[in-house]
């Protein structure tokens, strides 16, 4: 089978990490044409793989209405087209398969303008219309796709996973002591719940909590719909809340291993990877009790707090001890090999 794969989002957040983890399985088992930045794709090249440079922006008018014919011709030489998200270029005539990770912009008010939400819904609807079959990363996301998009297409759940490279760390065999810090890893959107965490952290500080809060990212680029968040941070004791700045994957893994606890205060997720990453490296996770976290993490040693309740989160912060969590090993269902096998069986048999 010859598969055209959209790889343009490699290097840009969770979707990029997702397709990066799947590509070794695709390229090992199929003849592939990979579209994206050649520098990002060189490591996947083999005698069955062709790399095609494509800089057309995802979710652009050019992609949707004027995708260059050169690219569409290359795609149509293949048997199927796979995209790791809901953006599907024009001019594709072969069967399309897509992964829709979540529909957060349709479920959470205020993440985008009214016009922005309408545009995003059109992209989701177009993906549903064009896809022979849709994959998603949790039962929760599956139900939200059905509800928001009135989707009658077959939707197959393929859980997310910690990629193999995450375990092959330069520091993996080095004894690293836990520091007196807690960690937030998330993007800039309001539904990640950082405001709740800051409120809980400041309240805990007033009760003698000594740990520092580390936020992965650059403060100057940390835009959020919650404009009061920086005012809140300024009321915290000096240097008790710090931004790490842009860091490498290796530096992030060291942070996971050295912090006392990861805090994931999300109001909404399609899956939510940081708790899995933290626990796999021996770090505890305090997470909100949203439905998808109950689906994914209920059988693992997480600590839940009431979603949006900073007082309850404050209590959980004050109860953290310094005892190291044993590295948690997740079952096969949470592996990219299993994810690929499910995708592979469905695209072969559908």
Give a short overview.
The protein is of the alpha/beta class. Helix content is 38%, strand content 16%.
Oligomer: single chain
Please provide the ordered H/E string of secondary-structure elements: EHEHEHHEEHHEHEEHEHEHEHEHEHH
Estimate the global geometry from the Cα principal axes: globular
Structural class, by secondary structure, is alpha/beta
How many runs of DSSP E, i.e. beta strands?
13
Strand sequence of the main sheet, in spatial order?
Answer: 3-2-1-4-5-6-7
- What is the beta-strand fraction? 15-25%
Number of helices: 14
Explain how this protein is built:
By secondary structure, the protein is α/β, with parallel strands linked by helices. Helix content is 38%, strand content 16%. It contains 14 helices and 13 strands. The strands form two sheets. Strands 3-2-1-4-5-6-7 form a seven-stranded parallel sheet, sandwiched between helices. A six-stranded parallel sheet has the order 10-9-8-11-12-13, with helices on both faces. Helix 1 crosses helix 14 and helix 8 packs across helix 13. The protein is globular and about 65 Å long. The two termini are 13 Å apart. The mean pLDDT is 91.
Topology:
Elements: E1 2-6, H1 13-29, E2 31-36, H2 38-41, E3 49-53, H3 61-65, H4 69-76, E4 80-83, E5 96-99, H5 104-107, H6 114-130, E6 131-136, H7 139-149, E7 155-157, E8 181-184, H8 194-206, E9 212-215, H9 229-234, E10 241-243, H10 249-258, E11 261-264, H11 274-280, E12 284-288, H12 291-297, E13 303-305, H13 310-318, H14 336-349
Parallel strand pairs: 1-2, 1-4, 2-3, 4-5, 5-6, 6-7, 8-9, 8-11, 9-10, 11-12, 12-13
